[in-house]
């Protein structure tokens, strides 16, 4: 069975404040329910991660940055929710950062499980706007760089490729990877939206607004195999943001839910054809349907790679 990593503590509920940002803080629970109710997984058929430790966070983040997350004004800027600046630091740590530490632990666990099982899915994570010393765009912890660094330090991976198909550039991941010769990023993103300053990347694919599903899938079909053949990674982390969706308020691509399910299957299939383990993380997605898009796409992956 494909391991699906999830903890109920991923969900962000802070007295209704989470509704001030278009991000659905309960998206993870909804995806979990959408997989359980048709019987695709039993309620206990998920792997529960531990939250990432401070010692592990320090392998990627600076001490100063982690300390700065206790400052309400800094955290409000990262989350883009100004009212967070008025919350006591312990409240935002418990209600907002702790869920993110669980999901970061989930990405670490998913990467380990991908190595054992070929495919794994974390129902969260993908905070690709977080770098060593800064965060932004609702991302506080650089979960993917941290997860691959732990495996690299343990000698379990030699070369890693992140495939980032969230509509926004993975500037945080790219910034961390710039100092690591063994880690590369392939990134198809909308050119003129957040983040304002783009980071240099190994395989950048900036495309303007209005991209349709068939054009988008054509680009991935043509370029992803080339990136895989150039890097020859022994682990791929797939950042499967659902914000290229036509109804997403923070991006202007025009993919349907069906296109996104096809995209996720295409990526996992292309990577698995080469025998490379792949860990999928969910990343962004700001439409009301985001949970449903992910659930349908995961159902497609389970149908193909998890035959019962
Ligand atoms: Zn995004």
Automatic annotation (TrEMBL):
InterPro entries reported in the protein's UniProt record: HDAC_classIV, HDACs, His_deacetylse_dom, His_deacetylse_dom_sf, Ureohydrolase_dom_sf
UniProt GO MF annotations: histone deacetylase activity; hydrolase activity
Keyword hit for Cell membrane: no
Keyword Hydrolase: yes
GO terms of biological process kind: epigenetic regulation of gene expression
Taxonomic superkingdom: Bacteria
Keywords noted in UniProt: Hydrolase
Gene3D superfamilies the UniProt entry points to: Histone deacetylase domain
Residue ranges of domain Histone deacetylase in the record: 21-292
Similarity comment: family membership: Belongs to the histone deacetylase family.
The protein, known as: Acetoin utilization protein AcuC
Gene responsible for this protein: acuC_2
């Amino acid at each position: 069975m494909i391991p699906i990593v999830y903890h109920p503590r991923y969900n962000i509920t802070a007295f209704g404040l989470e509704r001030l940002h278009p991000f659905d803080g309960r998206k993870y629970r909804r995806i979990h329910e959408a997989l359980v109710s048709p019987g695709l997984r039993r309620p206990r058929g998920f792997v529960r991660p531990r939250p990432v430790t401070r010692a592990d966070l320090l392998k990627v983040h600076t001490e100063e940055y982690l300390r700065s997350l206790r400052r309400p004004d800094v955290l409000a800027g990262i989350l883009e929710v100004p009212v967070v600046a008025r919350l006591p630091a312990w409240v935002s740590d418990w209600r907002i950062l702790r869920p993110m530490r669980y999901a970061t632990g989930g990405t670490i666990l998913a990467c380990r499980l991908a190595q054992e099982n070929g495919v794994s899915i974390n129902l969260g994570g993908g905070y690709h706007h977080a770098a060593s010393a800064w965060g932004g765009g609702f991302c506080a912890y650089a979960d993917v760089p941290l997860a691959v660094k732990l495996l690299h330090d343990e000698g379990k991976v030699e070369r890693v490729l992140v495939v980032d198909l969230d509509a926004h550039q993975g500037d945080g991941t790219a910034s961390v990877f710039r100092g690591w010769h063994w880690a590369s990023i392939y990134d198809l993103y909308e050119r003129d939206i957040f983040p304002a300053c783009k980071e240099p990347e190994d395989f950048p694919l900036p495309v303007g607004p209005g991209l349709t599903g068939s054009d988008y899938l054509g680009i991935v079909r043509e370029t992803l195999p080339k990136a895989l053949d150039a890097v020859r990674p022994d682990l791929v982390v797939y950042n499967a943001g659902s914000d290229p969706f036509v109804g997403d308020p923070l991006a202007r691509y025009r993919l349907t839910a069906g296109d996104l399910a096809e995209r996720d299957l295409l990526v996992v299939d292309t990577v698995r054809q080469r025998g490379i383990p792949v860990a999928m993380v969910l990343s962004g997605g700001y439409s009301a349907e985001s949970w449903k898009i992910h659930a349908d796409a995961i159902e497609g992956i389970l149908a193909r790679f998890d035959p019962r």
